Amino acid sequence: MNAMRFVSTRNPESVTGFVAALERGLAPDGGLYVPSEWPVLMPRLLQAEAASQRAGADPARPARLSATALASLASSVIAPFAAGSALASDLPAVAAEAFSFAAPLTPLDPLEPDGAASLLELFHGPTAAFKDFGARFLAASLAHLRRARRTAPGSHGSRTLTIVVATSGDTGGAVASAFHERPGIEVVVLYPKGLVSPTQERQLTCWGGNVRSFAVRGTFDDCQRLAKEALLDPQLRERSDLSSANSINLGRLLPQVVYYAAASLAVRERHGAPASFVIPSGNLGNALACIWARKLGLPIAAIVLAHNANRTVPDFLATGDWRPRPSVATLASAMDVGNPSNMERLRALYPDLAELRGAVRAETVDDAQIRAAIQAAFRRFGRILCPHTATALEVYERLPREQRNGRPWVLVATAHAAKFRETIEPLIGQRIPVPDSLAQLLARPVSVTEIAPQLATLRSALWTC
Ligand SMILES: *Cc1c(COP(=O)(O)O)cnc(C)c1O
Questions:
Q1: Is 8 helix (H, G, I), strand (E, B) or coil?
Q2: 415 lines ligand 1 (CB under 6 A)
Q3: 293 CA distance to ligand 1 middle (Å)
Q4: Which atom of ligand 1 is closest in space to residue 281's alpha carbon?
Q5: Which of 27, 196, 315, 446 could staple 200 via S-S, CB 3.0–4.6 A?
Q6: What is the DSSP string of 60-101?
Q7: 372: phi then psi, degrees, rounded to nearest 5
Q8: Distance of CA 245 from the midpoint of ligand 1 (Å)
Q9: What's the confidence (pLDDT) of residue 28?
Q10: 51 DSSP β-pair partners
């Protein structure tokens, strides 16, 4: 396979390889990396499957969305992107490290196991949100690359690598967990003070060691701007190597393609039709992964984005007018984004508005509708949804009946409800059991530094430690 090349969304002449794209996060011109061309994946995946069935691997084949199956699919899906890079031969090991938990596809209504709507449960990882997949893949990739470089002949060891991550709630915890205690790597977490749930805040601040957490006096957009400025700052670049772990990093996006691949193949097997997805969206990283999966040829039909009251994307699709704005705080706080950075990748893929409108739809859901959807899911199906997942249910319920019944739909469940107990328990009048891994995190001591949303402040906080 030829080495794949990646270009900046802002300049098709700015070309780089897979490893550099992963390590830099952001292109030098401030753009985001996208593949310069698209491999066609489906025929290769089907060939690999046919071969493994001929080899008699079938009877014990793990369910499509088990950890083992995801890890193996991840190797095939990501291989064309990593081809010819220093990571290519380590890819199976990296995938096995990253995909260490399942992504079950369960019926929305447990009493209708063959019903057309399912939940894709992406919250069974260490920090109970879908971001664990991307964060763990990126961390494992960077760790493998550093190890390979340290042991290379003539190597003089390596500088510390600082991962800067802005978070609206879940990213920071997932990234901190994935990089915690990895030698030679430190993590800087920036989150908006007072705008994340108490459970999320503990997950952002409970690590210590190589993880430093900053409560920024500002919004998520301030955190995101600060992270971008830090990554491009010559003074900080002198101190250590810098990289982002935000959803703008290719190393987070590509592993997310994998669960859409697995889910769409499972749906086609079960229903004989391509899957349509409703995706709770903020910065559009998760949705973009689904769009990329479809672009790669996987059996995916409609893709509908469920946004909260931050309606920059729904408004843009309706009016054609791109108007980023300050984010507003909602119950689905991990989606409180007023200027979604991955829009740049989406528009690079569909520069024409009419084409973009054909590729995705977007809806907005307000807090009252989120509350109502949480209550409806519990009353009708006995299911406890997090506020983000509830936006997907609301958007699904709004679909015209013939669309809802005519095809298999997958609602993407992005976080475990226990992370948002404070919101949900009063609505359903019941306590939410906390998964063990989450309970362990919540018991750790916390430490955090409060800062103003300025690069100079962050710089000095980092220099003085
Ligand atoms: C991050 C997050 C989202 C939004 O995902 P994007 O990739 O930013 O669009 C939705 N739900 C939860 C629980 C999240 O943590």
A1: strand
A2: yes
A3: 18
A4: 9
A5: 196
A6: TPPPTTSHHHHHHHHHHHHHHHHTTSTTGGGHHHHHHHH--S
A7: -65, -40
A8: 14
A9: 85
A10: none
Band the pLDDT of 244: cuts 50, 70, 90: confident
Is residue 247 lining ligand 1, measured as CB closer than 6 Å? yes
**Cβ atoms within 10 Å of 29's Cβ, excluding its own:** 12
| Radius of gyration of the chain from its Cα atoms, rounded to whole angstroms | 21
Average pLDDT, the chain: 91
How far apart CA 189 and CA 185 sit, in angstroms, is 13
pLDDT of the residue at 59: 46
Pairwise CA distance, residues 389 & 108, whole Å:
12
pLDDT digits (tens, 9 = 90+) for 421-452: 999 999 999 999 999 888 998 899 999 999 99
Closest by Cα among 279, 295, 263 to 362: 279
Quick one: pLDDT at residue 115?
82
Question: With a 6 A CB cut-off, is 333 part of the ligand 1 pocket?
Answer: no
User: What would the two tokens of residue 217 be?
Assistant: 């006096």
246 lines ligand 1 (CB under 6 A): no
H or E stretch at 349: helix 343-349
Considering the entire predicted model, what is its pTM? 0.92
112-116, long-range: CB < 8 A, 24+ apart:
114/270, 116/271, 116/404, 116/405, 116/407, 116/408, 116/409
> Can you say how many angstroms the Cα of residue 175 is from the centroid of all Cα atoms in its chain?
11
Give pLDDT, residue 45. Answer: 74
Closest among 284, 279, 296 to 247, alpha carbons compared? 284
Q: Regarding the domain delimited by 92-128+251-436, which CATH topology (the fold level of the hierarchy) does it fall under?
A: Rossmann fold (3.40.50)
Q: Is there an atom of ligand 1 within 6 Å of 283 CB?
A: yes
For 335-348, what is the HEC assignment? HCCCCCCCHHHHHH
Tell me the two tokens of residue 363: 């809806």
The domain limits of the chain are: 92-128+251-436
Q: What is the pLDDT averaged over residues 301-327?
A: 96
Report how far residue 171's alpha carbon sits from residue 165's, in angstroms, rounded to the nearest whole number. 8
**Residue 139 confidence (pLDDT):** 96
DSSP labels for 208-230?
-TTEEEEEESS-HHHHHHHHHHH
Question: Does the beta carbon of 227 sit less than 6 angstroms from any atom of ligand 1?
Answer: no
pLDDT digits (tens, 9 = 90+) for 174-196: 999 999 999 999 999 999 999 88
